[in-house]
Amino acid sequence: RQCTDVICCVIFIIVILGYIALGVVAWVHGDPRKVIYPTDSYGQFCGQKETLNENKTILFYFNILKCASPVVLINLQCPTTQLCVSKCPDRFATYIDVQASYRYRPDQWNYFRQFCKPGFNNPRKSVAQVLRDEDCPSMIIPSRPFLKRCFPDFSTKNGVLTVANQTTFKDGRGKTRNVTDLREAANGINNVLDARSVGMKIFEDYAISWYWILIGLFIAMMLSLLFLVLLRFTAGVLFWIFIFGVIGIIGYGIWHCYWEYDHLKGIPGSDLTVYDIGFQTDFKVYLQLRQTWLAFMIILCGVEVIIILMLIFLRSRIRIAIALLKEGSRAIGYIMSTLFYPIVTFILIAICISYWAVTAVFLATSGEPVYKVMANQTLCKYANLTCNPETFNTTNVTKLCPGAQCTFAFYGGESLYHKYIFIFQLANAFVFLWLVNFAIALGQCTLAGAFASYYWAYRKPADIPLWPLFSSFGRAIRYHTGSLAFGALILAIVQLIRVILEYLDHKLKGTQNSFTRFLLCCLKCCFWCLEKFLKFINRNAYIMIAIYGKNFCTSAREAFFLLMRNVVRVAVLDKVTDFLLFLGKILVAGGVGVLAFFFFTQRIPVFAQEVPMLNYYWVPLLTVIIGSYLVAHGFFSVYAMCVDTLFLCFCEDLERNDGSTAKPYFMSASLHRILGKKKLSPKK
User: Fold this and answer.
1) Is the pLDDT of residue 684 over 70?
2) What digits encode the pLDDT tens for the residues 117-176?
3) Could you tell me which of 153, 285, 388, 597 has the fewest CB atoms within 10 Å of its CB?
4) What are the TM regions of this chain, as residue ranges (predicted)?
């Protein structure tokens, strides 16, 4: 062997080094506190230690009615003054009422002014000027903190939306408004708060049932291993039982259609045609027609005939597919370490996801505070322009636009680095896709090399090399990193294009241009098909790389033409394998799920005292079912790779050898008996 696709290997290493450099730069410029802590109108973090806001951890909105939805409040900036406060207001009050009573009720003023701008303590200032300069909010309403922000304390009483058991409130501008006016600003908050309560209960359930969940997953692992072992003996039986079951069910359907067709004979109106009655929203009407049941019977007869003809003409290929499945079970039995390789792939992908997520957060928070002019007057020409809060009061903006303020808007910047943050995010996503596909390719090539060493061992298992999995992993890393990176690069490019198309589709959803939507739909469909095709080609190319050690393009071409020369065998083997492995996943997940259901619902008397007290028994139950399916999928993905590798080796064996002494077959005796061509030459 020699190194393949060296140029791509060098580029891949350079990209990885550049990716590390991007992460370092993002780490230097980024500040995750911008995500963790809310930011007030002055660009200061609420709750940040060693600052004036250290004890003020919650963000308060002067006029929450200006905020469209919680999404705007959390992700964007609401067009109203925002301050850091130590606690949310717990009562209704307006600035007008508080100012009018501050002389004989100073406690009300002292409570209200904690929601005013820091340092403001002038209750004699006119209400109009206070509201114009936004020194204080025009009103406060009972609120509670959520995501470190003050939201109205909504509740439902007899189906009526209330805040602190009131349905109306004063807006501080001389009007009495209904609580429903706050609905848009807090739409869905009750559901989210309820979800938070449910989330705490779910966390408690996980805390007291985690070890039982692990036991369930361990049982799923043992069942998966048992199923793979049993496939060596039961693959043919399971497949034929399923096939004859399908034939029997379709046969019953034909008989039932004939019975309905004959039963409707002579009934008035049953001889009408579908064309006569036209389109009906009640589909039961069509079941009263003899023509409907005749059509069903003809369709089912056609399907039955097709299945029987396929079984007759493809019986030898089906037997080969079943024999390969049994051979795959035997190969895994000799190389048991392959069953645990998916853990390595999982760890590599987890590292890629973690690095991508951390880099994306640091890039997103690497901007500097940007301040913009916020004016109450809609005709102010300076509105939404950037400003400097330190020099804002010396400009003429406040004169031309009374009440205008220079407030924090978002994080960004005008430097070269800040201008290309979007490009960096795109590069982060692209390299992430490349690395994930490389990790998957490395796993496929490693497993293919291990199973190929089993097939090409003339005497099994005596000629199987020592530590075949580790040897295959070493060959893949040492010689074929460039080829694996090349295949992963092609797939990553297509996946990035699909991501961009999804983004454009999301942005253009509201457009009325039908041609644009149609074009996007076609492009999404085409690139989806292209991705599926490339995954199929790459998978088989990696197998050929593991066997012969050639470069990616040569391996992909040889694999493709080899499969095309055996296209019927490929189709039969693919469907037989898919069915049996799907059946195995359902059996494992279903069996463990039923066992977990009886356990967590205390229906197993022996373990009734061991069952933990849960808020929702379905939390560990669903976790066990989904986890069992994923465990089975991990084991069966190894099995599927084994079968695909053995199939390509089998096709190569048939084309390169003829069973003679000079060119003996390397296939097992069972596969050779099915072919029935020549006798195996004696193995020495």
Assistant:
1) no
2) 888 888 888 888 887 777 888 888 888 887 788 888 877 777 677 777 787 887 777 777
3) 388
4) 7-28, 210-230, 237-255, 293-314, 334-358, 431-458, 479-501, 513-530, 579-600, 621-641
Q: Locate tokens 């903190």: which residue?
A: 145
As a whole number of angstroms, the distance between CA 491 and CA 498 comes to 11
How far apart CA 311 and CA 296 sit, in angstroms, is 23
Pairing, β 82-85 against β 58-61: antiparallel
- Structural domain including 404 reads 368-411
At which residue do the structure tokens 């939201």 appear? 151
Amino acid (one-letter) located at 524: K
Say whether 371 sits in a helix, a strand or coil: strand
Q: Is the dihedral of CA 324, 329, 333, 335 positive or negative?
A: positive
The tens digit of pLDDT for each residue in 489-516 reads: 999 999 999 988 888 887 776 665 778 8
Q: What is the CA radius of gyration of the chain?
A: 35
Distances (CA, A) of 503 to 435, 513, 524, 629, 634: 22, 17, 11, 31, 31
Q: Report yes or no on 137 lying in a domain.
A: yes
Count structural domains, the chain.
Answer: 2
CB-based contact 639:328 (threshold 8 Å): yes
- Host H or E run for residue 243: helix 189-263
Q: Output the average pLDDT for the chain.
A: 81
Higher local confidence (pLDDT), 609 or 408: 609
Each residue's pLDDT tens digit, 49-98: 877 888 888 888 887 776 644 434 333 456 677 889 989 998 888 888 88
End-of-domain residue from the set 347, 377, 411: 411
152 occurs within a structural domain:
yes
Distances (CA, A) of 227 to 220, 584, 585, 631: 10, 7, 10, 13
Per-residue pLDDT, averaged over 365-381, amounts to 70
- 415-464 confidence digits (pLDDT tens): 677 778 888 889 999 999 999 999 999 999 999 999 999 888 887 777 78
Supply the DSSP symbol for 4.
Answer: -
Helix, strand, coil share (%) of the chain residues, nearest 5: 65, 10, 25
Residue 564 lies in a domain: no
Q: What percent of the chain has pLDDT over 90?
A: 18
143 φ/ψ angles, rounded to the nearest 5 degrees = -135, 165
**Domain end among 155, 180, 205:** 180
- DSSP secondary structure code for residue 186 in this structure: G
Please state whether the peptide bond connecting residue 70 to the residue before it is cis, i.e. omega within 30 degrees of 0: no
Residue 548 lies in a domain: no
Tell me the C-alpha distance between 684 and 681, whole Å. Answer: 9
Residue 486 CB coordination number (10 Å): 26
Rounded to a whole number, what is the distance in angstroms from the first to the last CA of the chain?
Answer: 27
Q: Are 192 and 149 spatial neighbours (Cβ–Cβ below 8 Å)?
A: no
Q: So what's the pLDDT on residue 580?
A: 76
Count of residues making up the chain: 684
What pTM was computed for the model?
Answer: 0.70
Match 């030898």 to its residue by tokens: 316
Please name the residues in contact with 213: beta carbons below 8 A apart, sequence gap of 6 or more.
206, 620, 623, 624, 627
Q: Hey, what amino acid is at 404?
A: A
Give the H or E element holding residue 547: helix 514-548
- Mean local confidence (pLDDT), 23-35: 80
